[in-house]
Amino acid sequence: MKKRVRYRKRYAFLGAITGYFLALLASTILPTFIMLAIPLLTAAIGFVLGEKKEQRFSGITVPEPDQRITSTVTGSEQTKKELESTYSSEIREYLQVIKEIVINENEKRNLDDEISEKTINLCSKIDTLLPYIETLGSAQTKHDIKMLVMKDLNSVINPFLRLSVENKLKNRRKLLDGLRDINLKLKVISTSIEQHDIYELERKLTLITEKYNAKEIY
User: Count of CB atoms within 10 A of residue 166's CB?
Assistant: First the structure.
């Protein structure tokens, strides 16, 4: 919040004081009605001068102390959000590449429908979890997801695509088992996020209960 610099009242007040002293000095030579008019006249002049100065400096604002503090905090929060956004963007970009490869290979009949659907579903689940992972703020969880996408998921899809048709048929079940294991890991991460949310909910509800119960006592 900002305060405008105002001069009208200040200058009018100074003008009235000046006029009052001028009237006192001239009281022996001027009629009473003129003496009474002098403070009013000088106050009006001061008001006009103050208004002109205010218009000239209308763009000047004086920030309150807490504004500078808020600005610093906001900048810190913005930096944190940018780092989080970079993490999510990197993961999402990798997921998009995997999905495009899978869809393309499926259209070429190099990858069957079941494998394609399970892989795309995994990518979608990871994408959905990203905002919650960032909110959780766990470095370990972030690392697990990053490795799961860039190492685990990638390491089972790409080698499989390079196999001959015969070897694809032989190793198809192994690939599906690998995708299942990745899905199980995602479920573990999802459960940990949910447990964290439950803990936070219970903690905040306890604080609210204590807060309002204390007010009722007094």
Answer: 8
pLDDT value at residue 1: 41
CB 155 within 8 A of CB 91: no
pTM equals 0.56
> Which region holds residue 109: left if phi is over 0, alpha if psi is between -120 and 50, else beta?
left
Residue 132: C-alpha distances to residues 54, 177, 206 (Å): 51, 27, 23
pLDDT of residue 27: 65
Pair of tokens at residue 35: 């003496």
- Burial (CB < 10 A; 0-12, 13-18, 19+), residue 118, is middle
Query: Do the beta carbons of residue 75 and residue 27 sit within 8 Å?
Result: no
Phi and psi dihedrals of 104, rounded to 5? -65, -45
Angle at 133 between CA 131 and CA 135, to 5 degrees: 70
For residue range 75-87, what is the model confidence (pLDDT) as tens digits? 555 555 555 578 8
Residue ranges per domain, the chain?
2-63, 86-217
CA-atom Rg of the chain in angstroms: 37
User: Beta-strand (E) ranges in the chain?
Assistant: 2-4, 61-63
